[in-house]
Amino acid sequence: MIPDSTHIPAEDSHDGTVSLTQLPTEIRQAILEEVILSRPVPARNPSESQAERFNMLTHRGVWILDRRGSSAPSLLLVNKQINEETKVVTARTPVRCYVDLMFVKSCGLWPSWYFSQQLATEYIDSVEATIRLFEPMEDLDPCFSGSMSLVGGAGGPPGAVWDFYKMLAALFIEPGFSFLEDWFSLENFEPNYVVRKLVIDVLPPTDGYPHRSVTFTEAELDSDAGYWAEGRYGANDASKPAELRLADFLLGHFDCLWDVGRGTEYWAIFCECVTDRIVFRVNGNDYRVYNIDRVIEMCMRDDFIDIDPVRKQTRLDNLAVWKAWLDKRRSKMKLGLPLGDNPRPVTNCISAGFGSPTRRGITEGNN
Hints:
Elements: H1 25-37, H2 46-49, E1 54-56, E2 59-64, H3 72-75, H4 80-92, E3 96-104, E4 108-115, E5 123-134, H5 159-170, E6 194-202, H6 218-221, H7 242-254, H8 264-273, E7 274-282, E8 285-291, H9 292-299, H10 309-335, E9 363-365
Parallel strand pairs: 3-5, 5-6, 6-7
Antiparallel strand pairs: 1-2, 3-4, 7-8, 8-9
């Protein structure tokens, strides 16, 4: 029980100010909650945080910082009164994660993670990400140069798109720290966390560059490398704002997940770990919304292409087993119940051989 503020003796004040403990309980709790949930101001540009960044050997294009914890531990040390109230406020406040992602052309993805409180349960209320586009700065260490590839592979997306996807997927294992293996499959994916809502907001650039392309640097466009500049999904359409082009570029690849075929094992993890929805925003405005229940409903309508009848039936049987397991898991997720040790019953339920989806109805929003 939180002690009533009327029992706290008034502190002497010669300048007319009121201390935190003199405020009414409701106001004091609101202040504590605001402090706990407020996110830190991110670095203004890549140069400010480059000295502290390191990468994972299998993901050269992602340069991370040690994640920052909440302000709650500091509040616990103020005095006994604030200690008790901070514990009460923290216990009732949903866990929120914030990540600022600097998208530095040719130099990688630079995430900075912050958590409103310690991850005491497997449920995270929301993960809110901001994405900011940058041209490489002249004072960046040479180790960053060329670490991000936006040249498409043989029938697949560029390496940077894979890194972006794996960074998102890894937040279900250990937000801010873990990365998926290069050769990802459902078989080696064991999530520890469930997120109610994932919000990704692409913000306007602030570095003063024209950003004729959101995937290649100005120098690359003016050199022979410009010949290879990927213009898919409007990346080089300078008639549109850079933040809109970057959102379209990421979404163009993200949309490729949603089919019961070669992409199914990639979208399946979002169905297993996101309760409500994934929202892409552009400068604070909703741009594309993936309602996960709707995604599952639409994707499960896809049909097979012509394949061997025996293989087709095996895949249908495995998919039905996985879907039944998924329905039970999602029912628990929506109620916030412990998921326990209940691994997916099949991992080979989803492989190439299914037909292409009809994406109409999967998303809500502008596109």
